[in-house]
Amino acid sequence: MSPKVSRRKFLGYAGAAVGLGASGYFALNQFNQPQQTESIPALSGAPPSGRSTRLAIPKNPQNYLPDEYVDFIRWLESISDKIAGTQMRIAIEAEVAPRALLRNKIDFESSTGTKVLMEFDIYRNNLAKCLLAVSTRSPTFDVINVDVSQVGRFAPHLVPIEELMETYPDLTYPDLNIDEFIKPVKDFTCIYPPNLSLPPWEVDFNGTFMQFPQEVPLMIRFFRKDLYSEEGRDVSVTWGEYLDDVKHFHNPTRAKFGTVLMAARFPSIVMEYHNWLYSFGGKLWDIKKDGTITSAINSDEAIAALEHYLEVSKYAEPNSAFYGWAPAAEAMSQRRAATMINLTEFASLMDIPGESYVVREVGYARNPKGERGASHHYTGAGLAIPKYSLNPAAAWVFIQWATIAPTQLIIAMDPLAMAVPTRTSVYENSHVKELVSEGTIRHFNVVKDAIDKGEINIKPGFPKWDEIEGEMMNQLNRAIRGQITSKEALKIIEERAVKQGPFKF
């Protein structure tokens, strides 16, 4: 059976999946329509005074509702007269965290007297419609979903967080703590020009806080605990050991493969290669303190990383050169691979009873180490308010609700989401710790460990990034398919980067 839970940028790959036997998977997935919207019924004034707020049934096995969440709902009721009757439109990717917000937004709507229309779409479509809206200064959307790699393009069109707090002090939650966001997540996702404070970056541009981060999608290792245990093998620590693992478990005659890659001509291959690149000691860019960016992709370290990646591909599921995130995750859930590196958002996909064939069999670990240590690609996004919104006050209240710690706690414990939280306090919650120890959200500790050790790599979101990424996905995919060598691929990418310059934050 095919999983029916949508994942980040899930459908962004759908067009590339033609002919791969994945069409049924996309067709069956209820969230895999290019665009989904809700109808907005007419609202008439403020909600009646003295009403009893309807809280959504908690979507977690313990029916746990944090006291802090109830407190926030009561605060929403207290300020509802200021925004009641508002109808907001939100453009957002079809990811696990937004879907969990959809399941719980009745809490927000009933306590504020507002209506929230959430428009879900695949990554590229969502990006295109949001760019069109801001470039034409259209009031189409009150809240938009901005990817870490796109902050530079959107920054001139967004209302900074501090400006919102100053403009709407009476609509700012008294206990709102913007310093509680995980620092690198905040720095990478929400600050422009960015604070590249983790290795290999040592630059702080003292940028502006533009949006609230909604989750932590981090690329980590998925592995079949049952297979490793049966074979008496420890989880590999280095890339050399990882290669030995995939060789050992590779058995094409039984449709069992050492690994599965997401090496389609799509952003997924760039993100996947980053895990090798930075751990081998390479990097995409040299970033100077004045904001100047120069290409560093055609280095000995980058070549060695790509050659190792290509060697691993020899033991990958045969369609890996055409897979993005979701098909790779499906292959893992269908027992076709012993291990893979993928986004944390797919963790819940592994444990859906009756749909996944590896329920509770998948473990999680940090990525293998290279010369520079381990490295994990981070591809987060945030919730931002365009300058052209007609309802900025209500939008400000909404993004607070969507990202406040107790809401993140509910989403983290939602078995259909298991979204990794962006606020530090959620990791310390006793209920979260219990679920981690029981194995339900067992990937949380891996993510926190990788973050604490500074093992994160990103795609710096300067405005011209898309042009470079397009060339990278083409040439890396050609290398995977044996059409060009590692050296040739990286030389072409560097030449394209130089031609696109100069770059500057």
Q: What does this molecule look like?
A:
The protein is an alpha+beta fold. It folds into two domains: 60-216 and 379-448, D-Maltodextrin-Binding Protein, domain 2, CATH 3.40.190.10; 219-377 and 464-504, 3-Layer(aba) Sandwich (D-Maltodextrin-Binding Protein, domain 2). It contains 19 helices and 19 strands. The chain has helices spanning 23-28, 67-79, 96-112, 123-135, 151-154, 161-167, 183-190, 225-230, 239-249, 267-279, 300-313, 325-333, 392-403, 405-413, 424-428, 430-438, 444-452, 465-480, 486-500; strands at residues 35-36, 87-93, 115-121, 143-147, 191-192, 195-196, 203-204, 208-209, 212-213, 219-224, 257-259, 285-287, 292-295, 337-343, 362-365, 376-377, 381-384, 456-457, 503-504. It has a six-stranded mixed beta sheet with strand order 1-3-2-4-17-9, sandwiched between helices. The protein has a four-stranded mixed beta sheet with strand order 11-14-10-15. The protein has a three-stranded antiparallel beta sheet with strand order 12-13-19. Strand 6 (195-196) and strand 7 form a beta hairpin. Helix 10 packs across helix 11 (300-313) and helix 18 runs antiparallel to helix 19 (486-500). The longest helix is centred in the N-terminal third of the chain and has 17 residues, at 96-112.
